[in-house]
Amino acid sequence: MKNLLILFTLLFISAQAFAQNGEDKLGSWHMYFGTNKLSEKWSLHTEAQLRYYENGKNFNQLLLRTGANYHINENAIATLGYGHITTDGTFEEFTDEINSIEHRIFEQFILKNQVGEFNFEHRYRLEQRFIDFGDRNDTQHRARYRLQVTLPLTDIFFLNFYDEIFLNLQDEVFGQNRLYGALGINITHNLSTQVGYLKNHFPSAHYDRLQIAVFYNPDLSNLFKKNGQD
């Protein structure tokens, strides 16, 4: 336990030391993710993210996302979903940026495998983005790939890492890259939390973000069965 606390402290100090974001401040993302089981083959994805340019202040983005998951087997999941994103692009050094509202459709495929103690997850995602900038509308398409690795430390604590690349399917190909590391805690069998650091690299900017996430995956299948019997 002592070693875990030391590791987390070093992670947080490193995030503070290398922060070079908008502008030279450590921003924060506050997130909720849910996989709500409906049956053996189907579940509902729910997600909400509140993102700030600075730690807990100076609003940047609200992201709400949902989707229908089809569980091909325990290691393969296909998803069709929708996202609503409100972005405030204005910041002290971004005087030319404007606010936007985005409607996003996405298709996703997840593959999982295990090597020794390490749990790997490969996430492939396509996105169709319909963005309203106020004075004009734009349609964009992009592909994303995320490799995630989870290492259990005990029954309660675990480490989580991922790297995700975003590729535009128009104009400049490289969109961004996200590198993430976190300490996770299993609170119950379907509730966990993670506190970590994200390095978000764009072609012309680098952002450092503290991430605080809650994952809640309830089993609602029995509820639906009971309603079907009434």
TrEMBL record:
Identify the stretch annotated as signal peptide in this record: 1-19
Keyword annotations of the record: Signal
What is the name attached to this protein's record?
A: DUF2490 domain-containing protein
Per the UniProt record, the lineage of the source organism begins with: Bacteria, Pseudomonadati, Bacteroidota, Flavobacteriia, Flavobacteriales
